[in-house]
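4.2 Preliminary Data

To establish feasibility before requesting continued support, the project team ran the inverse folding procedure on a target of 252 residues. The structure was first converted into the token representation described in Section 3, and no sequence information of any kind was made available to the design step. The complete token record follows.
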């Protein structure tokens, strides 16, 4: 799926916004929907869609969904394994780098419990979706949206040459190749997986992540998968479908 993909404008009044997106991310604006995969800009924001299957819902970064708001209203997920894995307890102004943000769902949990979260995304399409999600979140909750920052680039390189503020923890959730018949993968999410593909170079992230993180690195893995890079973690926190391998870089 090419990065310079077609951006279909559903509403002519959004043309200026579409042109801005095209200039920023290298998309091709079109008044006609593409034959298959493409981006859709409508009153709900930016999304990725398979136009060849009209019944499929578009994929978007939605920090304003019912599940996200419910999670925020009920403590933001402080008891969730990911929060324990990144080592938030006992810290304030905790800065986490999410080097494989995907659609930002885990990052939202971290921001909801008070972390400042830097997202590093190498795909221009995914970065644009994340930026759009943060923009829409800002209209409803500017304080929460302000906890996010977004960098477009290769995470391994960005972390290796990091010259910004201190990073307390790094979170990694590499895209893991799913079994073709897996019932866990919704059709809509298959569109996203076709876009980003499996992170075959995910092993390149662990070393720079450990060098960057002041306290720890947390790696999300399916329960059946081995450790990233076959590197044994300091400890692991298990959930129903996933576990979090934790690499301690410094004792708090």
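Position-by-position output of the design step:
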């Amino acid at each position: 799926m090419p990065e310079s993909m077609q951006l279909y404008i559903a509403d002519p009044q959004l043309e200026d916004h579409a042109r801005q997106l095209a200039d920023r991310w290298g998309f091709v604006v079109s008044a006609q929907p593409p034959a298959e995969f493409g981006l859709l800009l409508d009153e709900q924001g930016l999304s990725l869609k398979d136009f060849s299957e009209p019944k499929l819902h578009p994929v978007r970064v939605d920090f304003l969904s019912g599940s996200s708001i419910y999670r925020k209203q009920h403590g933001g997920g402080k008891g969730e394994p990911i929060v324990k894995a990144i080592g938030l307890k006992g810290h304030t102004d905790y800065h986490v780098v999410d080097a494989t943000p995907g659609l930002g769902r885990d990052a939202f949990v971290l921001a909801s419990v008070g972390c400042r979260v830097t997202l590093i995304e190498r795909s221009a399409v995914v970065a644009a979706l994340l930026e759009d999600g943060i923009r829409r979140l800002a209209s409803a909750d500017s304080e929460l949206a302000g906890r996010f920052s977004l960098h477009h680039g290769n995470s391994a390189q960005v972390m290796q040459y990091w010259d910004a503020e201190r990073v307390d923890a790094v979170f990694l959730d590499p895209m893991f190749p799913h079994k073709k018949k897996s019932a866990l993968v919704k059709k809509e999410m298959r569109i996203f997986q076709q876009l980003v593909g499996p992170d075959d170079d995910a092993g390149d992230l662990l070393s720079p992540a450990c060098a960057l993180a002041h306290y720890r690195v947390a790696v999300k893995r399916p329960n059946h998968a081995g450790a990233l890079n076959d590197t044994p973690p300091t400890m692991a926190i298990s959930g129903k479908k996933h576990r979090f391998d934790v690499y301690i870089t410094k004792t708090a």
